[in-house]
Amino acid sequence: MNTKPTLTRSGSRSLDGSSSPEGHPGGDRYTAVEQYSLRRILGAWAATAVPMGVLLWLVAPWLSDRLAGPDPFIQALLICFAVGLVWQITLLLILLGREQGGLHASRIVDGLWLRAPKDPRSGRTGGKVWWWVLPFVVLSGVVNAGWIDPVGPLPRDLPKTLELARGRVEHYFHGNWSAFTLFAFVVLLAPIGEELFFRGLLLPRMRKVFGRADVVVNGALFGVYHLHQPWSIPASVIDGIVSQAYPTRRFQSIWIAIAAHTVPSFVIIGAVVPLVL
Fold it and tell me: Which residues touch 117 (CB under 8 Å, ≥6 apart)?
């Protein structure tokens, strides 16, 4: 019997040359992705981190001088954030489409680990495994409670601006539904887009280069991605490792990470709604 490892279509190896059918929820989901080289990992990171940094530090001040309204600088920041996030999603689709040979729904789901979490011990998929969302949401909340990161410059550090310069944001948001819509778009798209890119695209493709250290390196890359708000890097690194990258690899699904990363966004949006009203 030939036991020589063979290469599957996705670039994953199995000892007997077999692999789980693509999209099979109980199989090894690494078989649906291609492993990246170090150069490709760093290139993908730079392709999203650098544009976001340029937009927030260079373009936003320039744009604010050309806008009118109650607070042109906050408006410019939100616009630049939105542009950077849309580019991140576009880049994600370009990279995934090239790898998977198209953007068919099933290939997107498998290529980004958008299937229900799978228990690594029992092999159970979904069901009671979803309860693991709760501890990781709580853990993320503890990490992001404000005891790690320093206060960033206002109003760039918008959560702290809501707390420390409430009058300014009240002036900006009061009765301004268009501004609130843009704000909600950015605050919700940021965690979803970042999880799709860092945990859906990059993390599963980092195993060949980093092995078991892929979780730590992924969290570090995610933290340093925040060049556009460097005061949040320490908490982003810790949060990226323990409540986002780790559960993604353990359960071979990004849904727990998306939940942990997105719940705070609803809290922030809820805090802004009374200001609009």
Answer: 125, 126, 129, 130, 132, 247, 251, 252, 253, 255, 256
